[in-house]
Amino acid sequence: MLYREVGQYKTNYAADMAVFPILQDRIGVAVILLVAFVVIPLFGNDFLLNAVLIPFLIFSLAAIGLNLLTGYAGLLSLGTGAFMGVGAYACLKLTTSFPQINIIVWIVASGFFSAAVGALFGLPSLRIKGFYLAVATLAAQFFLEWCFVRIPWLYNNSVSGAIEVPLRTLMGVPITGPTATSVTRYLLVLSIVVVMTWFASNLVHGRIGRMWMSVRDMDLAAELIGIRLLRAKLLAFAVSSFYCGVAGAMLVFLWYGGAEADVFAIDQSFLILFMVIIGGLGTLIGSFFGAALIYILPIALRAIPEVLGLPLHPATVEQLRFVIVGALIIVFLILEPNGLARLWQVGKQKLRVWPFPY
Amino acid sequence: MRAPSSREAALGEVLLAVEDVSLSFGGVQALTDVSFDIRKGEIRAIIGPNGAGKTSMLNVVNGFYQPQSGRITFKGQARTSMRPYAAAQGGIARTFQNLALFRGMSTLDNILAGRALKMRRGFFWQLIRYGPALKEEVAHRRRVEEIIDFLEIADIRKIPVGRLPYGLQKRVELGRALAMEPDLLLLDEPMAGMNLEEKEDMSRFIIDVNQQYGTTIALIEHDMGVVMDLSDRVVVLDYGRKIADATPDEVKRDKNVIRAYLGEPHGVSVTK
Amino acid sequence: MNLLYQIFVGPFVQMAAAPDLLVQTLWDGLVSGVLYALIALGFVLIFKASGVFNFAQGIMVVFAALTLVGLHQDGIPAFLALALTVVVMFLLALGVERLVLRPLVNQSDFILFMATFGLTYFLIGFGQLVFGGNPKVMIASALWLPTGALQYKGLGGFVAFQKIDIAAVIITSIMVAALAIFFQRTRIGRALRAVADSHQAALSVGISLEQIWVIVWFTAGVVALTTGIMWGARSQVDFSLEIIALRALPVLILGGLTSIPGAVVGGLIIGIGEKLGEFYWGPLLGGGIESWFAYVIALGFLIFRPQGLFGERIIERI
Q1: Residues of chain A with a CB closer than 8 angstroms to some CB in chain C
Q2: Three-point CA angle A90, A91, A92, nearest 5°
Q3: Which of A110, A202, B26, C311 is positioned for an S-S bond with C307, CB 3.0–4.6 A?
Q4: Does domain A20-353 have CATH number 1.10.3470?
Q5: 3.10.200.10, 1.10.10.10, 3.40.50.300, 3.40.50.2300: which CATH number matches B92-181?
Q6: Chain A partners (3+ C-beta pairs within 8 A)
Q7: What is the pTM (predicted TM-score) of this model?
Q8: How many beta-carbon pairs below 8 A join chains B and C?
Q9: Angle between helix C260-276 and helix C19-50 axes, rounded to 10 deg
Q10: Pairing mode, strands B69-74 and B77-79
Q11: What is the crossing angle of helices C19-50 and C57-73, to 10°?
Q12: From first to last of its 272 residues, what are the pLDDT tens digits of chain B?
């Protein structure tokens, strides 16, 4: 009753091809943005921002990156963690070498380094596909992990072997380092994620998204309609790694405040892959859903027993998380292989005809 | 000697010529010294029993297979083999025996995908979409809608192609090929699996494409009625060799062709 | 110039200068190669029979080892514990077939692959919940596995052959031979090969897919158990073993996903190559290159021969 398209006629193709053709969707997005930019900073507490929203946004961005590569272009990658790491280390070197340039510039610029590395390790996709390509990305993951530990120049030769985040400011307000408030960092992360999501949305709705999906669905036919496979695949690797790199840089600079190399280990790659699978391969909103479920789940797992008065050992919580995530993946693959995004779509479909059954 | 009909007069010079093309893979000789040409504006049928190498021939023209010997001359340019990108860029489009649609996308998106070569707006315009990229999308959408109207598939344009019945899927695939605005259209068994009504529709589309847009068509088909009615000239292949190359009437009466179809023991038979 | 010498000449000079070290490295490589082959074998079995790439093979190794050690710790005699563990692996195979494979029977390979990811995570968590996360000691002596080493004096120094390693090589060879015979000669083996070729064709001649899958996953489970015992006896039983599964992937690339001899040859190449690489070239790069060296070897292969040494050539038709 509330969610109808009745009366919303499209009078030109541009309107028909809009990203949110239904008015109610546009209102919904506007409300979400309003809440995100205005309401939450005003009323949110440190815990909500630091432990929930900032990481949720960062992981969503990384999930978008992986979704572009694996969901839209059909190239399975297990190197997400390492590409995030490239972004983080690139940002560190850039900002320590040129501290006078604003850190935000460097956070975004570090994506280009990730993109280059991603494209390099994507070269084998010319010859190999599917599972074998995944193994090639594993090569990237392990090699880069090794680099993060064995090349001291990368972490500024710090004795601990970890990235130490220097203090940086924007117009006098500290944005990295221990003095940066969570609100500042939250707004910065939010802005970057919103803009980059907008870019990703534009890409997938246009010819590049179609090109990737053609390669994914049947690359032989894609070649025969004039798509250059290597360029399409390398572009996918580059763009995807760009997103992962920026996410990695934000992870270290705007959230953790420092990092050790094992943050970008293979476990991270798996985690993001699970987010993308459960959230919905080949959708942008699925990246957000997946990140929310997989990231917020352990927080809920820790919080619920406390609320109920049964304290659980943190190790047990961690183990339960593994069990639940693993089971969830299997359940989702059985029931709805297209993930939460499809459930969302189905829900909206039901909403269109509500209160009628069909 | 018949007086040339107005149709024959309308046919132009040679658009595609294959000379002595041989193709084998892993011990199977798919094509042996096949030569024929296709003139601009004509509808050329390629027929033959199963396993004759018809699809392999189209795959060679497309650039999907590289022949071991022979030459392919397209639009005056001769080469020893074609590459898929060069074929697409040169104006060759194709449909497939077993359907090669992009199953994850809708009808509209599949046909729009056929415009890939013609969409030029660069990466950074795509990032912001509003502006030149969107204008280009709308312009191509307009063209694609013309094709959708022509093929009468307007009501299924937003449906994911995986859900469509077989006959409509074949039409969508034709639409995608047409979206490339090809000079040469290769159709691999476009009528396979269709009932009479669907065949009539498809025949009508093929004739319209040829007459309205002037597209040259090469067509593999098993239905003799369709071949006789639609084509200007016919090439007959059997076991990878050309055994006839003439007008439909002449081919129908050719002794070699009849023997190939109705059969005489061929020695050890090899099925594809 | 010096760099070129270091890469192309130096290591070989080193090898010649100390042949005992070379033999030791080769032997160590052989042993780890044999163990890689064993893990790869588990993958090959399941892939051959059901087309599923079972990412969970690694965790199955750990799980089997943990169960064995856990049962023994509870006071059950070693060989009885072994038998019980075999039963547990059978139940696991049944469970996987019923709960994971059957509901996903018509889905794409990608989805099945992802499901094994989920299975991996589930078993990691479950295993830790049941057995605890601390490393355990494999009950090698209780299982009559030898300890100690054989020393060989010669070649300018001496070479040590750990007895457990020798046992590992022998046991693996027996296992591989048994599996090869099983696949080639027995009726069930033929059925497995039929299923690997085409599910539908196999169904149409009356082969029960469900039974086959249970048999295959159970066999893979037994292989996993053997692997777990061998690996565990050489180091310890903990969850880093599942990372070892990731090390088996390059072996599969080399040997092809469908070939038992391929798994063995691939394992040996990777095992020996890795050890040689680490020992003689590793110091040039600062050490620790074992983590990715095998992958680079595999990657090189993939570029030139995507189907591996023994795998079936992938021909695409359109």
Answers
A1: 76, 124, 127-128, 130-132, 135-136, 138-139, 142-143, 145-146, 149-150, 220-221, 266, 270, 273-274, 277, 315-316, 319-330, 333-334, 337
A2: 90
A3: C311
A4: yes
A5: 3.40.50.300
A6: B, C
A7: 0.89
A8: 7
A9: 150
A10: antiparallel
A11: 100
A12: 444 455 665 667 889 999 999 999 878 899 999 999 999 999 999 999 888 889 999 999 988 899 999 999 999 888 888 889 999 999 999 999 889 999 989 999 999 999 999 998 889 999 998 889 999 999 999 999 999 999 999 999 999 999 999 989 999 999 999 999 999 999 999 998 888 998 999 999 999 999 998 999 999 998 888 888 899 999 999 999 999 999 998 988 888 888 887 766 555 555 54
Residue C315 within a domain: no
* C297-316 residues touching A, CB cutoff 8 A: 298-299, 302-303, 306, 316
Q: Tell me whether residue C242 is in a domain.
A: yes
- Give the E-state strand segments of chain B in sequence order: 14-25, 28-39, 43-47, 69-74, 77-79, 92-94, 184-188, 216-220, 233-238, 241-246
Architecture of domain B1-88+215-272: 3-Layer(aba) Sandwich (3.40)
Report d(CA A192, CA A171) in Å as an integer: 17
Tokens encoding C96: 């996987």
Chain B residues touching A208 at Cβ < 8 A: 123, 126
Which residue of A77, A133, A146 is the best one to mutate when testing the C interface, meaning the one whose CB has the most C CBs within 10 A? A146
C50 within a domain of the structure (yes/no) = no
Residues 6+ apart with CB under 8 A from B1: none
Could you say which of C129, C246, C292 has the minimum Cβ distance to residue A323? C129
